[in-house]
Model the fold of this input.
Amino acid sequence: MTETQPQTWVDGAAGSLYDVDNLPYAVVTTGDEPAQVGVRIGEQVLDLGAAARALRPAWTPLLGVDRLNPLLAAGAATWAEVRAWVVDLLTDPGRRDQVRLLPLADVACRLPFEVADYVDYYASEHHATNVGRIFRPDGAALLPNWKHLPVGYHGRAGSIVVSGTPVHRPAGQRKAPTEDLPSYGPSRRLDIEAELGFVVGRSVPLGTRVATAEFADTVFGVAGVNDWSARDIQAWEYVPLGPHLAKSFATSISAWVTPLAALEPARVPLPGQDVPVLQYLREEGPSGYDIEVEVELNGTVVARPPYRSMYWSPAQMLAHLTVNGASLRVGDLYASGTISGPDKDQRGSFLELSWGGREPFVAGGAERTFLEDGDEVVLRYTAPGARGRIGLGEVRGRILPTS
Amino acid sequence: MTETQPQTWVDGAAGSLYDVDNLPYAVVTTGDEPAQVGVRIGEQVLDLGAAARALRPAWTPLLGVDRLNPLLAAGAATWAEVRAWVVDLLTDPGRRDQVRLLPLADVACRLPFEVADYVDYYASEHHATNVGRIFRPDGAALLPNWKHLPVGYHGRAGSIVVSGTPVHRPAGQRKAPTEDLPSYGPSRRLDIEAELGFVVGRSVPLGTRVATAEFADTVFGVAGVNDWSARDIQAWEYVPLGPHLAKSFATSISAWVTPLAALEPARVPLPGQDVPVLQYLREEGPSGYDIEVEVELNGTVVARPPYRSMYWSPAQMLAHLTVNGASLRVGDLYASGTISGPDKDQRGSFLELSWGGREPFVAGGAERTFLEDGDEVVLRYTAPGARGRIGLGEVRGRILPTS
Done:
């Protein structure tokens, strides 16, 4: 008898983007019930809190709770045990009557974890080059440090919201180059940034460096990120200390956190680093991820940024984050920065798609530059999984007028 | 009979920097007991957790806990009630046997509150001008946005530590202008930044602006801040997204949080804003604070930065922080940026005191520029109180070698 892969007993899940090779986690509520950890399978959500209480009471503190942080904190060995148990629950037909499935359409998703610190990188060479060309047409596209270290900065953890949360257009100070003085008002150049985020599941004390090789023991999984950006506010405020209010009004993340284990088949080599890096940034093996992103504006796909084109790997970003002895906390989130590929339709921001607003792009028959009130943006992420493609959920947000 | 101010019954406290016009809060432990909220009076600490349990059980959830966050979250009316009660406890001789005083020398202080987001401003015109002259000797000292908005950025909340915590010298990438390539190693230009921090005690949802007039209902009090900075790491990494690893290895704050109520007598007008500000930054009444800072290096006072010289007020920084609709959380901390006055001995960083390392200053008979391993820095803060000067605690840290 040859060993075959066990199939899930969940109707419609086998062969879908959410088969048992995927199994992302979220925090879900249904009706008046308290929020619980859930796992997506097909178009259903396995109530993992209820399963733990009934079948594995020792895991109730990890799974019967309203945030993923306790599961994140449990460490890589437990992440693997929980994942194997979930596979068993969803493939052993004898479990069918022991667990509860909730239709995806009936659950509401919460912010999946309490975010500790949020760092945003700038790891796409294509994005950094495009932005450099747009803002500094007469200078070098990349600044001198860019290929020596993954440039990044801290964002506002408290304004991170879950997919589906509407986003108020920010107001603030804007000054166009042609204006003498700044004025106050709603942003006129509101943008998206299609990114990938990495969720830290390990606390590391101050004074400790985390090596690139520790990536898989430190990062639990990934989430989609839309780092909404007000380009006019940013252009005026950002010297010399970087973006602040241009980014701090909202950052949307996917409800679903996909464990690294599901993304093993998506590992690919980086496209290539043409400047040697310092020892602490070196790494072994394929360290990139072949994740496809779709950027949809009001129902029309306007770009398909490929994550495999990123210059810096997530393990390098992690090593850099802690090389100075900065501590890590469970729930830290670091994001890749805008994902842009080499082609025009692979750009992950409207700034690049419209080349600074000067070359409108077409979406749904309309010429577009920046976001209008009422626009809805959806970022969708897929990758090769162990059985077929897997879905990493979506990041959805609609723009409301300035409040 | 004329009404006189009630005197405290605590030996040695009347007339000290910690009389009943002050009453800062900390989270203290003694022996094996759980951490509690404490209030400093003279050289003693009132065990406020024990007092609440015995005398005001309804406040035990605010005071018999290991962080100030529940007290912060209770709101301005409760802040005033608790303060009035503490004054009563410490001035009514009949209370002497009902409360417990702990000698200051016998308690250990914890980080006083769980920090949500940390924003660091750049609000001293003298500091920003000095830094501009040091780094851009041929350009304008202040950048065009500086007098239109309080420039700021997010720091790393997770690396904030309480006074007394040793600080490992960070390592990282440094590249001097004369070098072709960056190298990895311990920072060679490790610095301090003497700042004042403002502790938010109110949650405000996304999409809501906080007016300057809401400052006293939003900010609970102040803490001393030493924003340790690695200037060589900063110079190489900071374009275009601002400081990251140069700051994220440690930020020290005082154990004591001084309520705004104690600082009412210290309110002074700002030195003057010579460029009109937009409506949302306007404010009524004196909005500065006459707080003196002493910077001590290995026992020698090397600078006395005056907080009253700051260009931007804390209420303006708060209004700016939320003008884009960013939310606030209880435990948010925003700091002023380096406090530097107009005089040479009023500069709040070694970068300025040594003019970029080119003009060593004298401390304890030695010529000094940046921090050496083993150096201990203490920042001390005092201000006029209702009865005399009050102390705002200290921020102490010793530099350990790179770990």
About this structure: The radius of gyration of chain A is 21 Å. DSSP finds nine helices and 26 strands in chain A. Chain A touches chain B through 64 residues (CB under 8 Å).
